[in-house]
């Protein structure tokens, strides 16, 4: 942790002479086109990915929770987590190339080919890679949340004539709020790791729709622009800590509200 | 009426199974393509991928089965590519030294967190969690400055050392230690067990789930690191697999496919053996204090 204090100190100094410049570095990054672009992309990436991931995985988890033999399916969904980004880069390049397999299929079915990596579609390629990679553990978390809801309550509701749909909206979903917070935090933080796929497929300077803060940090690092890096690192740390604490605060508040009628099983 | 209800339920179940099964297949498809590609002959791969390589006309295609299955790509990999052994060994070295170090540093730290009350414990713990959650980009510069001072940049230790002291395994193992009933520990203490004995005889066996979860998650994480080696390693002969593989490129498609499959094997092995612990680890890492 001490080293990070040094970074905070550096964020107020110039890179070359080391003299004190106050908040100049911070001003600089906020006037930096690359930083603004990367920050915008990173935020919109999270804003698109998180809801998509959360809804798709909840859907799958609910279906899974109603099946008996799920071990094999769970393995299939979790599998990408074990697959290092580097080993499937080949396949990504093959699939998403202008003259690649997806476009070949598109043409076969009468569509027009899309320049996936050279247009705004690059952003969506990234979204797909992210969901591919993170779907498994999100499903596992939802499933754990669903299975922790006591069966007797669902049984009682069913006896009272509640349909599966009512059970889902009135019992299962409200009880999954704590899971939702965890998933949001974890998935958000994992969204930074999508840099791996992005970098390996498209290099240091990809299409501008997928130029993320992670690219920027990496490029600043290679160019030894440490003053900007320090300021941006401090800024990012503050934003993320704020985000985590905010979610935690919301979460605690919900828990306090809901304690009296808490019906989740212990453990 | 009853039979109608039954058949509808059954129908639903089959529909669900088909839907979930096809999503699962799509998810596994990229790895399947990789696997198949590694058995395709060079001529077939060239033909399949020509449009991508030359950007001339036409579209790439990729049959779901090799026309003439062959082991030649693997033979080339094993007998013709000494580089591959070097990088493979680099990856293994990084993973296993990091994990061993995490075990030595993390398990006692987790035990201390779970067992002892001390001043500022809560603050320290919150701090730990926030630190754990920060992406690499936030700590990149501070790591670099420290490692540079220690003269470790451009050595494998620049990856291993920060890994050893990462907070995630401590947190995960702490979870399973704090699940040990207090009464059990007190009973053992009354029977004359010292702290060391408590740790070895009760802590380690009962906390083994957490330790193994940390191992599985750690293996998958350190086996596929990109950001750290990219920033801290300059010499290509120090690179791990995760940086080396993408360099091969489609020009040497046969080699690239075979190398990717071989690189995948350790990860798949750990995944299959440790899936239970992986799932437990995921759930435990998400639980709130």
Short description:
The complex is a heterodimer of chains A (267) and B (289). With 267 residues, chain A is mostly helical.
Layout of secondary structure:
The complex is a heterodimer of chains A (267) and B (289).
Chain A lengths: L1 H9 L13 H7 L2 H33 L5 H12 L2 H12 L4 H8 L12 H27 L3 H9 L4 H12 L1 H14 L4 H8 L10 H10 L3 H33 L9
Helix pairs in contact in A: 1-13, 2-13, 3-7, 3-10, 3-12, 4-7, 5-11, 7-10, 8-9, 10-13
Chain B lengths: L1 H37 L3 H13 L17 H9 L1 H34 L5 H13 L2 H14 L7 H8 L3 H11 L3 H9 L4 H12 L1 H16 L3 H6 L8 H8 L4 H34 L3
Description of the molecule:
The complex is a heterodimer of chains A (267) and B (289). Chain A is mainly alpha-helical and 267 residues long. In chain A, 73% of the residues lie in helices and 0% in strands. Chain A has helices at 2-10, 24-30, 33-65, 71-82, 85-96, 101-108, 121-147, 151-159, 164-175, 177-190, 195-202, 213-222, 226-258. In chain A, helix 3 crosses helix 12 and helix 8 (151-159) runs antiparallel to helix 9 (164-175). Residues 260-267 of chain A have low confidence and may be disordered. Chain B is mostly helical and 289 residues long. Chain B folds into two domains: 2-75, no CATH class; 77-286, MetI-like (MetI-like fold), CATH 1.10.3720. Chain B has helices spanning 2-38, 42-54, 72-80, 82-115, 121-133, 136-149, 157-164, 168-178, 182-190, 195-206, 208-223, 227-232, 241-248, 253-286. The model of chain B has no long low-confidence stretch (mean pLDDT 84). Classes of the chains: A mainly alpha (267), B mainly alpha (289). At the A-B interface, helix 1, helix 3, helix 4, helix 5 and helix 6 of A face helix 1, helix 2, helix 5, helix 6 and helix 12 of B.
